[in-house]
Amino acid sequence: MVIAPARARRPGAGKPEADESRNDVAGCPFCAGRESATPPETFAIGPPGRPADAPGWWVRVVPNKFPAFGPWSGEGDKTGLFARRAARGRQEVVVHSPRHVRTFSNLTGREVEQVAEAWQNRASTALEQGFPYVQALVNEGRAAGASLAHSHSQLFWLEDEPPLVAQERAAQEAQGGCILCRVLAEELEQRIRIVDERDGLLLLCPFASRQPYEMVVAPRKCTRNPFEGPELAAALRLFSEGIRRLHVAEGAVPLNAWLHASGHWHLEIVPRLSVLAGLELGAGYFVNTLAPESAAGVLRGA
Question: Which pLDDT does position 19 carry in this prediction?
Answer without folding.
Answer: 57
